[in-house]
Design goal:
This protein is globular. About 35% of the residues lie in helices and about 20% in strands. By secondary structure, the protein is an alpha/beta fold. The two termini are about 40 Å apart. The strands form 4 sheets. It has a 6-stranded mixed sheet, sandwiched between helices. Strands 1, 2, 5, 12 and 15 form a 5-stranded antiparallel sheet that branches.
Length: about 425
C-alpha cells in the first residue's frame, strides 16, 4: 500500500491520492482509445475551447418514501432539469446492493460466481473518518469497534472503503485509500485501536504498518488526553463551591466562557475546512460518496446563537455559520453525504449531537446516536442507499470544466417522497493541443 501524506487545511499540498487518481484517469483515457486529432485540423489557441461538447452524464438517484426505497421506477418517471430546461434521459438503470452476509467464500471455492459490480458512477465510496480533536480516546476506541462491525456486516462487496483521522493540530492523515479489500480495512482499524490500547499488532520483518503516516510514535499521538476539550475553570469552581466564590469569580467565568467558545469554534471551523480540502482532493473519484463521521460533536449553539451586542462573546458564531454553509454546500455539490455517529451518547452519555446533526442534515445524511453500539444505526443509514437508480442524460456544454447544477424530479410522486442525488456535474475540461 502506498503511503498517504497528511492534509493540512491551511497548507494544502499536492495530495498523493490526487496523483493516483490522475494516473488512473490517464490510463482510462488511453484504454478508451482517444485518438489524436487529424493533421488537417487547425491549431487551437492556448485558451479554453469555444466548441460545444455533446456528452453524457451519469446521475445516481435515491428515491425514498419514509425509510423505504421506492422501487420499480422507469426513465419516463423522472425528469432532469438544468437551469429549468429538461435534459434528454438516455437510460435508467436500477442498482440494488446487498449487505455482506458472513464470511466470503474460500479462495479455492470455484462454485461461487464472482460478484457483478455496478457501474462506476453507482458504486459507493465509504470514508471512515475519526475525529480525535473533539472526542475522547476511550470513546473513539468504541467508535472504531462499531466501524469494524458495520464494515463486516452492512456493506456490499462492491463498496470501496477508506480510512482517515482528524488530529487536534488540524491535520487529516489518510490511513487507507479506497479499497474493496475488507481485510486491509480491518487491519487498519485494528491497528488504530491497538495504538491507543497498547495492543498494536506485531508486524513481520519488513512489513509496513497501517499507521506509518503517523510516525514512529503513533500510540502517544492517539492515546493522549483530548487536547481540544475546553474547560471554563472559573465556572467549574463556582459550581463546586457555590456562593463563596461567586462574587470573586463571576465576571471571570463570563469572560472565560467567551474565550472557551471562541476556541471551540476554531476547532470546528478547522475540521470543516479539512473536510472541504479532502472533498476537493478526492473530486476526480467517480461514484457515490459517504462520509461516516465518528465524533463526540459540538454544541449547535455555537452556530445558531444570535449576537446580542458588539461585546457579545458569541460574535464569531455568524462567521462559523457562514463558513459551515459554504463548506457543506461544496460537499453537496461534490456528491458527499455525511452520516454522523455521535460517540457522546454511547453508554447513555450526554446528548451533544446538535452540531453533528447540522453536518448530517445539510448533506442528506443521518445522525446516529444512543445505545451501546452504533453499528446497527450506521448499517440502517447505509441501507438507505442500497436501492437506487442510475440516470444517464445527454448534455451539450462547452468543454470549460465549469460546474452545472442539476435538479432531478419525479413526474408524479406521492406525499413524503424524497429524492437525493448529486447536485450537478462538471463539464469536460478543454483539450489543449500543441500548435
Amino acid at each position: 500500500m502506498i503511503p498517504m501524506s497528511p492534509l493540512r487545511p491551511h497548507q494544502p499540498g499536492i495530495h498523493l491520492c490526487v496523483r493516483i487518481a490522475a494516473v488512473l484517469m490517464l490510463l482510462l483515457c488511453g484504454a478508451a482509445g482517444i485518438a489524436e486529432p487529424p493533421p488537417s485540423s487547425p491549431p487551437m489557441s492556448a485558451g479554453a475551447s469555444s466548441e460545444i461538447s455533446v456528452t453524457v452524464v451519469e446521475i445516481p438517484v435515491e428515491v425514498m418514501r419514509g425509510n423505504e426505497p421506492v422501487e420499480g421506477l422507469q426513465a419516463a418517471d423522472f425528469e432532469v432539469l438544468e437551469n429549468g430546461h429538461p435534459l434528454p434521459i438516455v437510460s435508467c438503470e436500477t442498482i440494488e446492493l446487498r449487505a455482506s452476509q458472513g464470511a466470503e467464500p474460500a479462495r479455492g471455492d470455484q462454485s461461487a460466481p464472482a460478484p457483478a459490480f455496478p457501474p462506476q458512477a453507482a458504486r459507493r465510496h465509504v470514508f471512515l473518518f475519526f475525529d480525535f480533536a473533539l472526542s475522547r480516546p476511550d470513546r473513539q476506541i468504541e467508535g472504531i469497534a462499531a466501524a469494524r462491525r458495520m464494515v463486516a456486516g452492512s456493506l456490499d462487496s462492491s463498496d470501496l472503503v477508506g480510512v482517515g483521522i482528524y488530529l487536534p493540530k488540524g491535520e487529516l492523515p489518510l490511513l487507507l485509500p479506497f479499497t474493496t479489500d475488507r481485510a486491509a480495512v480491518d487491519r487498519t482499524l485494528a491497528a488504530l485501536s491497538g495504538a491507543m490500547t497498547g495492543k498494536a499488532p506485531v508486524l513481520a520483518a519488513g512489513e509496513d504498518g497501517p499507521l506509518r503516516v503517523l510516525g514512529a510514535d503513533a500510540r502517544k499521538l492517539l492515546a493522549q488526553r483530548n487536547r481540544t476539550r475546553e474547560v471554563n475553570f472559573a465556572a467549574q469552581m463556582i459550581a463546586e463551591h457555590g456562593d463563596s466564590v461567586v462574587e470573586a469569580l463571576g465576571d471571570a467565568a463570563r469572560v472565560e466562557a467567551g474565550n472557551v467558545e471562541a476556541r471551540q469554534r476554531g476547532h470546528v471551523m478547522a475540521m470543516a475546512e479539512a473536510l472541504a480540502g479532502l472533498a476537493d482532493y478526492l473530486r476526480p473519484i467517480e461514484g457515490r460518496k459517504y462520509l461516516a463521521l465518528f465524533s463526540e460533536g459540538f454544541s449547535g449553539e455555537m452556530v445558531h446563537r444570535p449576537t446580542e451586542g458588539i461585546t457579545d462573546a458569541n460574535l464569531g458564531s455568524s462567521a462559523l455559520l457562514a463558513k459551515l454553509n459554504e463548506i457543506l454546500g461544496s460537499l453537496r455539490r461534490l456528491g458527499w453525504v455525511i452520516h454522523a455517529a455521535n460517540l457522546g451518547t454511547l453508554r447513555g452519555g450526554g446528548l451533544n449531537g446538535d452540531g453533528l446533526f447540522i453536518l448530517a442534515n445539510q448533506t442528506g445524511g443521518v445522525l446516529v446516536e444512543g445505545g451501546n453500539d452504533l453499528a446497527p444505526g450506521l448499517g440502517r443509514a447505509m441501507s438507505r442507499s442500497a436501492y437506487s437508480y442510475l440516470l444517464t442524460v445527454q448534455v451539450d456544454v462547452p468543454p470549460d470544466g465549469s460546474y452545472h447544477p442539476l435538479e432531478v424530479r419525479l413526474r408524479k410522486s406521492a406525499r413524503g417522497t424524497k429524492l437525493r442525488h448529486r447536485g450537478g456535474y462538471f463539464a469536460p475540461r478543454p483539450v489543449r493541443r500543441p500548435p
